[in-house]
Write a structure and sequence with these properties.
Number of helices: 6
Number of strands: 8
Strand order of the largest sheet: 1-4-3-2-5-6-8-7
CATH superfamily of the largest domain: Vaccinia Virus protein VP39
Mean pLDDT: 94
Oligomer: single chain
Largest sheet: 8 strands, mixed
Radius of gyration: 17 Å
Number of domains: 2
CATH architecture of the largest domain: 3-Layer(aba) Sandwich
CATH class of the largest domain: Alpha Beta
Low-confidence stretches: none
Helix content: 25-40%
Order of helices and strands: HEEHEHEEHEHEHE
Length: 222
């Protein structure tokens, strides 16, 4: 989805206390960037921030990091986070946002960053075969995630795209992940649907099934 240029986004992000302008400087040290150190939940492609803002607000004991590419969309995520936390009477103290091309995510993250869980919610399915390498679940991405996601930690994909869903299941197995849960049509009363993204609400309203996979890296064999 194309986001129109927003002249206010960059200036607002520049003075936002929970926006990280130079994420590469925190590689290996993200844990200490939060008010309270602790494992981090990461959303790759956080978009307008509806999911991660609500998740962070509801879990004040955890830390959250939202990553997306464009300042325009991160400006919206910043405003959404402020709205959610203000409505609950709390400062935004366990959420950070940053801009980064996820294809180079290891420029800003490594195993020392204690990533506890990764969410990939309704990413671009890149349907043309020649563009498949840009998928956030493509093997060239998954091998990067394995550099900071330890065995036992979780990665969850949600998508409305049938082909991406099927292909991603194969990618996960190919790259050394164990599939813990795979649901072709996620029920609305499933715990994973308690916090919905804007896209999930829209696709459910259209009667489309929500595909869901949760995986974990396999233990290395001796």
């Amino acid at each position: 989805m194309r986001i129109r240029r927003k002249q206010w986004a960059r200036p607002e992000l520049a003075v936002c206390p929970f926006f990280v302008a130079h994420p590469e400087e925190l590689k290996g040290r993200w844990n200490g960037a939060f008010v309270r150190p602790g494992p981090i939940t990461l959303e790759l492609g956080c978009g307008k921030g509806g999911f991660i803002a609500q998740a962070a607000f509801e879990s004040p004991e955890k830390n959250f990091l939202g990553v997306d590419l464009k300042s325009e969309v991160l400006g919206l995520a910043k405003r959404n986070a402020e709205r959610v936390f203000a409505a609950g009477g709390r400062p935004v103290d366990n959420l950070l946002l940053t801009a980064q091309n996820i294809e180079w995510i290891t420029n800003i993250l490594c195993v020392e960053d204690e990533i506890e869980r990764v969410y990939i919610n309704f990413c671009n399915p890149w349907p043309k075969k020649r563009d498949g390498k840009h998928r956030l679940t493509h093997p060239r991405q998954l091998v990067q995630y394995l550099t900071f996601l330890r065995p036992g930690r979780l990665l969850t994909l949600k998508t409305d795209d049938d082909e991406l869903y099927e292909a991603s299941a194969g990618y996960f197995e190919e790259c050394g992940f164990t599939i813990l849960e795979r649901i072709g049509s996620l029920p609305e009363d499933h715990p994973a649907s308690r916090i919905m993204t804007e896209h999930e609400r829209m696709f459910r309203g259209m009667g489309l099934p929500i595909h869901y996979i949760t995986v974990t890296p396999k233990e290395a064999t001796p």
